[in-house]
Write a structure and sequence with these properties.
- The protein is mainly alpha-helical and about 130 residues long.
- The protein has three helices and two strands, in the order ββααα.
- A two-stranded antiparallel sheet has the order 1-2.
- A hairpin with a 4-residue loop joins strand 1 and strand 2.
- The two termini are about 15 Å apart.
Amino acid sequence: MKGVAYFNHKHGCQKCTVEGKHHSAARVIYFPDIDAPVRTDEDFRALKYGDHHRETSPFIDLLFFDMIKGFPTSDCLHLLDYEITRTYVNCLKSGKLGLHRKWSPDTISRINNVLQNVEIPIDYHR
């Protein structure tokens, strides 16, 4: 949904600009730097992260939504269950997380319209 490199890509870290290294014997990408600069919403929207960006996200036009902090970094494979996602979205809608105020009906309608027009890529296997 963010249109970025996968977690196992050289530029796959969702939260910082660390560049992954390839370990040929283990056939994995690892991220050796723990002090890399964090990604920012402003730089993400300006597409300043090079190979981290794969395509333009449908969420890029939602200016009230932080493209870095607004997405969980896990997926079903990494223990983020459907129920947790649903609970998280419901908390965002109701303002119960304390991070933002309650979403207005107009905001919910705009998000629904964006999600209805999202085309899931054929290589989406999770």
